[in-house]
Every structure is written in structure tokens, then in C-alpha cells.
């Protein structure tokens, strides 16, 4: 691979990571003023802000690698659904608090493992972003872990809702461990994380937490994929409509 | 006033390195000048106290470059900090300057100055407990963060996340006041 190809591939990879971060951030931020109580409302917004910060670092870096004068805002606000390459789990609607927490648990466990590897990336910027994010993720996981226990091992109603959420989201977790040709090249170059290798540890950790919460680990009976190639659920278009409206209505607006 | 061995402040290695870096700087007057720039969210602290101000440099043509680092990834205050430093440099008569953001090494609460920790407490925010105090995980403890109002250790955590990303919410069982705790990270 030539240096230009490598740079181009890294740009696409970094954009994926930015897409995951911004879409999840937006979904969590939808809880603003809808949280179950004030402290939880604030906690969710803080987590959303951490993901937004990651998105900004990734998009800024992607724009720099591309070198065509685009900015983080162009990446966030001026790309359509098919150009977004986030994992589908991040775009699913928040549904109820149990769904939000189950997704957070799956993603937080994944991120603790993923970022730990990204720290070793030969790409200095990716390693630097990981060094910041890995510390924040420890706080995120402790919270989603506690909530999973509280809801799973709570009332009959909270247990049922949590189990439904785990069952409904399970088929979207497999995509987190897919490695395509682009990522394979970058893994060989020491830049990307080999996420396929993280699945056994992820499964072990998630199984332990779900079991502790008296929840049942679902069977692997169905799988949905497509986010990395731009094939999304119907939910992403609606999310982008809301997220991008202001910027598209008033291009370049600042305050 | 008598002093005892317990009055000798214990500082983190990270802080000691920062202080040494500042003391060895070629432009001490610039560091001193920027001591007046405070954190927009916790105005009791200067950017130096907070550990956000990493480095500064003046080149042979008089151009000043300042490096700052964000606390949390999504810290919304970073651009305000940048503006505040620029206005201070402009006020001091500099016309060629640049404020740059750098990500590595990642900010840590170990960079808080001892002075900053004292100011936080006076402001009503409990400073981070150091890992040396039996908080091995580094995460926020559930109990026992010292109340900044009455110094009681009989306190409980109300929420892992407080009014901003860098804080958690506690309540004191003695004076019953709620207070922010500046999380260790
Ligand atoms: Zn008190």
C-alpha cells in the first residue's frame, strides 16, 4: 500500500469511529429533560458530551487526513444517510430507559476493550484520542453496569423490560466485531484495532454482568449488519433530519 | 504558628513535573501573566491550577504560542479558554500569537496544583481524592469524600455525574449540604 492509500484508508476508518460517536451521542442526548430523575438526566448528558467530544476529535482528524479543506462540521452536517458508516446499534431509537442502558452496557464493555487496544495504535492521533476516551469509558461502564443490575434484579416490570431490551439489541452486537478489507489492511499496518479478536472477552464480561443481573444471555439466532457500508435502518434518516436541520437551513451559522 | 510533618504537602509526580517545566521556562513572565486567566466553569481556578495550560513559547520574532489541553473530550469550555487567553495576550500588547490545542498526554486531575485543590475546596467543590488514599480504582468512591463545607467525612455519593462532566454529586450527612466532587481522572 502506498502512503497515499494508507492515508485515504485511515481517513475512512477514522470517519467510521467519528460516525459511531456522533450518532450515539445524539441518541443519548435525546434524553435531555426526559430522564427518569434530574441526576440521571445530567449523567446521560455528560455521557453524550463525552461521545460528542470524541466525534469532534475524529472528524477533525479525518478532515486533516483528507486535506481537502473540509471541517468537522462538513462531516457531521453535510453527509447523507448512505455516507454515514456508523454501526447500526448506535442509531437504534432510545425506546425506554432499559433499551438505552442495555445498549450502553454493550457499547461500554466493547469500548473498554477497544480503546485499550487503540492506545497501542501506531497512529499517534488515534492513540491520543484513546488515552482520553479510555478514562471516560471506565466511568460510563461503571454506571451502565450498575443500572443493568438495578433494573435486571429489580421489580418484575424492570426485569422484563431489561430482558426485552437485551433480546431486541443482541442481534445488533455482532456487527461490532466485523472486520472488512479496509480494516484488515489497517490492522496489518498497526493502525486499526482488530475488533474481531475482542469478541471472546466481550462475551465473557457481558455474560457475567447479565447473569449477575438475573438476566438471560440470548441465543445467537439473528444478526443485522450493514452500517459500515452505508446500509442503515430507517431510524438514521430521521435522526439526521433533526441533527442536521439547523446547519442545512443556515449554512455556516455560528453564535 | 507551629508546623508538623503533616503540614508538608504531598504532591503528585505529574504536578512536580509541570512545576519544574514552568520554572525552567525561558519566559517566566508569560506564565505569570496568564495566571489571571480562569476556568470559565470553575472561575476560582486559573487554567494553570487546573492543568489545562500545558506550555508556552516565544519565538525569535516575538510570536507567542500557547498550548492547552481539554479536560474531558467533550469539554465545551475549551474554545472559551482559547478566547480568554487570546484576549489576555492582546491586552498585554502582543499582536502575534496562537493558542493551540493538544491531546497528548491526556489531561489528568494529577495536574491540579496544590493551590488549585485548596481553591476548589474554598469554592465549595471537594478536590479529587488521590489514589494513595485507598481509592485504588481511581473511580469516584461511594462514601467518605470530605465535605468542603464542614470537613466531615460522613458523606454519600448522590450521582456519578454532576453539573459538568468533571464532577460528581455528593451529600454530607452532618451538615446536610449537597456538594460537587471533582472526579479523579
Ligand atoms: Zn458537611
Automatic annotation (TrEMBL), chain A:
<protein>
    <submittedName>
        <fullName>Phenylacetate-CoA oxygenase subunit PaaI</fullName>
    </submittedName>
</protein>
<dbReference type="GO" id="GO:0010124">
    <property type="term" value="P:phenylacetate catabolic process"/>
</dbReference>
<dbReference type="InterPro" id="IPR052703">
    <property type="entry name" value="Aromatic_CoA_ox/epox"/>
</dbReference>
<dbReference type="InterPro" id="IPR012347">
    <property type="entry name" value="Ferritin-like"/>
</dbReference>
<dbReference type="InterPro" id="IPR009078">
    <property type="entry name" value="Ferritin-like_SF"/>
</dbReference>
<dbReference type="InterPro" id="IPR011882">
    <property type="entry name" value="PaaC"/>
</dbReference>
<dbReference type="GO" id="GO:0005829">
    <property type="term" value="C:cytosol"/>
</dbReference>
<dbReference type="InterPro" id="IPR007814">
    <property type="entry name" value="PaaA_PaaC"/>
</dbReference>
<dbReference type="Pfam" id="PF05138">
    <property type="entry name" value="PaaA_PaaC"/>
</dbReference>
Amino acid at each position: 500500500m502506498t502512503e497515499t492509500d494508507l492515508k485515504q484508508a485511515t481517513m475512512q476508518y477514522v470517519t467510521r469511529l467519528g460516525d459511531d460517536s456522533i450518532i450515539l451521542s445524539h441518541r443519548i442526548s435525546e434524553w435531555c429533560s426526559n430522564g427518569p430523575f434530574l441526576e440521571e438526566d445530567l449523567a446521560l448528558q455528560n455521557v453524550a458530551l463525552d461521545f460528542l467530544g470524541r466525534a469532534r476529535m475524529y472528524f477533525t482528524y479525518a478532515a486533516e487526513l483528507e486535506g481537502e479543506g473540509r471541517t468537522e462540521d462538513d462531516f457531521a452536517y453535510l453527509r447523507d444517510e448512505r455516507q454515514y458508516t456508523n454501526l447500526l446499534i448506535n442509531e437504534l431509537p432510545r425506546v425506554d430507559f432499559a433499551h438505552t442502558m442495555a445498549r450502553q452496557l454493550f457499547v461500554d464493555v466493547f469500548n473498554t476493550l477497544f480503546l485499550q487496544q487503540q492506545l497501542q495504535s501506531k497512529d499517534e492521533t488515534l492513540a491520543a484520542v484513546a488515552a482520553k476516551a479510555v478514562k471516560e469509558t471506565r466511568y460510563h461502564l461503571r454506571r451502565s453496569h450498575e443500572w443493568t443490575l438495578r433494573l435486571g434484579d429489580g421489580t418484575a416490570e424492570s426485569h422484563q423490560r431489561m430482558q426485552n431490551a437485551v433480546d431486541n439489541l443482541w442481534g445488533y452486537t455482532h456487527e461490532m466485531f466485523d472486520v472488512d478489507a479496509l480494516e484488515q489492511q489497517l490492522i496489518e499496518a498497526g493502525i486499526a484495532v482488530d475488533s474481531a479478536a475482542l469478541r471472546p472477552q466481550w462475551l465473557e464480561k457481558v455474560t457475567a454482568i447479565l447473569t449477575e443481573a438475573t438476566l438471560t444471555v440470548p441465543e445467537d439466532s439473528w444478526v443485522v449488519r450493514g452500517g459500515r457500508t452505508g446500509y442503515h435502518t430507517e431510524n438514521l434518516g430521521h435522526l439526521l433530519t433533526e441533527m442536521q436541520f439547523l446547519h442545512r437551513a443556515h449554512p455556516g451559522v455560528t453564535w | 504558628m507551629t508546623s508538623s510533618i503533616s503540614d508538608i504537602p504531598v504532591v503528585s509526580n505529574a504536578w512536580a513535573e509541570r512545576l519544574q517545566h514552568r520554572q525552567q521556562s525561558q519566559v517566566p513572565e508569560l506564565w505569570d501573566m496568564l495566571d489571571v486567566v480562569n476556568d470559565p466553569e470553575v472561575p476560582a481556578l486559573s487554567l494553570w491550577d487546573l492543568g489545562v495550560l500545558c506550555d508556552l513559547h516565544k519565538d525569535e520574532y516575538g510570536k507567542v504560542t500557547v498550548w492547552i489541553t481539554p479536560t474531558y473530550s467533550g469539554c465545551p469550555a475549551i474554545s472559551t479558554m482559547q478566547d480568554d487567553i487570546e484576549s489576555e495576550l492582546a491586552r498585554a500588547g502582543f499582536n502575534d500569537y496562537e493558542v493551540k490545542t493538544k491531546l497528548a498526554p491526556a489531561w489528568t486531575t494529577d495536574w491540579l496544583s496544590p493551590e488549585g485543590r485548596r481553591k476548589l475546596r474554598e469554592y465549595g467543590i471537594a478536590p479529587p481524592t488521590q489514589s494513595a488514599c485507598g481509592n485504588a480504582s481511581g473511580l469516584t468512591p461511594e462514601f467518605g469524600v470530605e465535605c468542603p463545607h464542614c470537613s466531615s467525612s460522613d458523606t454519600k455519593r448522590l450521582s456519578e455525574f454532576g453539573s459538568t462532566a468533571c464532577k460528581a454529586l455528593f451529600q454530607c450527612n452532618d451538615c446536610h449540604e449537597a456538594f460537587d466532587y471533582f472526579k479523579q481522572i
